[in-house]
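Here is a complete protein record:
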Amino acid sequence: MSVDGMITFHDRPGNAFTSSADKRHFVECLQAFDCSVLGRNTFEASKDFLLSQLSSRRLRVVITSNPDDYADLAVPGKLEFSKDGPEEILQGLTERGYRKCAHLGGSDAYASFQSAQCIDAWWLSVEARIFGSGRPLCPGTHDAHLAVESVERLEDSDTLLLKYRCIYQ
């Protein structure tokens, strides 16, 4: 995200604005997760890449109000589409034996999971850029309390990785 909290560069979907250090870190850290959840817009922005990277090592669940529209792309255990809410999605993953889930965006999906208190931690890579407009990280009205776990610089870049733990009261 940008310093001013935008996860897209103006109205352009995707992560083209992120540094190569961030891209390398993202791919590397995903290896620790056995599943991931993402919104439909995030899927659409990265569809070609995601479809080329399907693996039984990590299930990807795409949140969409119309899962039937994606029936031809679904691959059980690799790429699935769901209209369930955050609690139902996570409960289903847990019941199927998944233990560590990464939430990959976008902003509406983040807001939904944050409102349902279904995010344990935020790992935010912050690019040294200010956009002024774009998609905010987590739109809506929230009062999320976070505790800093760590702050690090990614490689020799100006990208910071901030790790926070969520505190629900």
